[in-house]
Amino acid sequence: MKAARWHAARDIRVEEIEEPQPGPGEVKMKVAWTGICGSDLHEYLAGPIFIPVGSEHPLSHDAAPIVMGHEYCGEITELGEGVTGLAIGDRVAVEPIFACDDCAPCRSGLYNLCEKLGFVGLSGGWGGFAAYSVVPARMCHKMPDGLSIEQGALVEPAAVALHAIRISAIRPGGTAAVFGAGPIGLLVIEALRVAGATAIHVVEPSPERRQKALELGATSAIDPAGENPVEAIRKATGSGVDVAFEVTGVPRVLPQAIESTRYDGQTLIVSIWESEASFQPNSVVLKERQIKGTIAYRDVYPAVMQLMLQGYFSAEKLVTKRIAIDDIVAQGFEALVAEKTQIKILVEAPA
Question: pTM score, two decimals?
Fold first, then answer.
């Protein structure tokens, strides 16, 4: 079958590989659509980050080259031995977390904090940039009949956003700042609306993305090249926002996010980072501010799909390009690097 595999930074190849077959407890699916994630882009530009190179991942038992793609959906075509609760023909969204089920976080139900955490399509396994995928049955969430199959490719990134809101300090009536209006930042805006935030101030250099942020419910959209974002947020709020969401991974943005919050405010770091970032600790100490991180999601896929049925996280509003797998580098990864007008690019699975 045809698949896109990561070999090294800036070296993703569309190749013919063997079609996977399900083992006990696994399902095989015909992939429909797969989104290109910011994490994929980090691996393309500066990897390896999550991708195991030289030695295999402890849970996937794979090492590069690996089939990429973790934001995906498809239709089940085959059930491995012992699989129950799923049927051939079911449309499913994949929750692509590898977790050991044995470490302290896993035993506490915090499987996204697993000491051996990995992701299908990043840490190995049969990722979504392919004709077929095989995953453990527990990773599959049946999609409601009212959702288009294309929406299934947005469940994973929307889960990142909704989980971030769930573990943040935001409360109904609260105020927020979102630094970065890429796909996850825009989904965070929608999740903030779900949570009842009354003011959402977005900081984003791209005019197209600022406009999209306003369309999705942002109160204001600030161009950091034209004005000081911290001053603009403080002018709008008085003392700063309750929670700032850092969704850029750009080192100079982190102190801005921290300083945009009020006394006793919170900064939630959603990004994956390619390099270190610094800030003045006194800006946290003297205001008793909090800094917290978030990774992926847990126990949130069903809620995401129910919100999609209500019109949130709409593919119609967020998908800017649909491409074939043969064009994944030139029209996918390189387009995301060069064109800040792009938001979410979906890759159609090969026949």
Answer: 0.96
